[in-house]
Amino acid sequence: MRVRRDLSSIPQRSAGETWQRVIDLVTGRGSIEVHQLEKAAGVMASIITDEHPASRAMVIEGVGPQLRVYCRYGMKAVEEGDKVDALTWNPTAGDWTMHVPCDAENIDWVKKSLAKTSPRIKVFDVEDADRAEEEKTEAVSKSGKELVVDWNFGG
Hints:
By secondary structure, the chain is an alpha/beta fold. The protein has one domain. Helix content is 37%, strand content 19%. The chain has helices spanning 15-26, 34-39, 41-49, 74-80, 107-117, 131-143, and strands at 2-8, 58-61, 66-72, 97-102, 121-125. Strands 1-3-2-4-5 form a 5-stranded mixed sheet. Helix 5 links the parallel strand 4 (97-102) and strand 5. Helix 1 crosses helix 3. It is globular and about 35 Å long.
């Protein structure tokens, strides 16, 4: 199961404030190794500033469902404001890993930097196929059917 959250970023809030909002969203009572998220602030602000999380999710795999966090930018960020639904679980309350998008030009220094301070945060190239989409394509090709849930039905 996957859960999605969208956070407003630039210009609604700075890249650093956006990263702090991500930390606040994914941590709570019982979280482990929160310091790794905090130490990644500078690198993550760079990734957020480059707007990669607009099209490619920051993915947290840990306790509970997979969490996919996207950022909104520009007028969409301003229009949507600060609202974001809280999680009903704490994805960092046990063994967890975060996967973040990065462009090929910066991926080497980002990997090196995160490896030193935040080894639970892994980097993937924004041009690589999305693992979730690959899994979906494989499942559909095997079954010949795709399950679609319309959460807006009737409203």
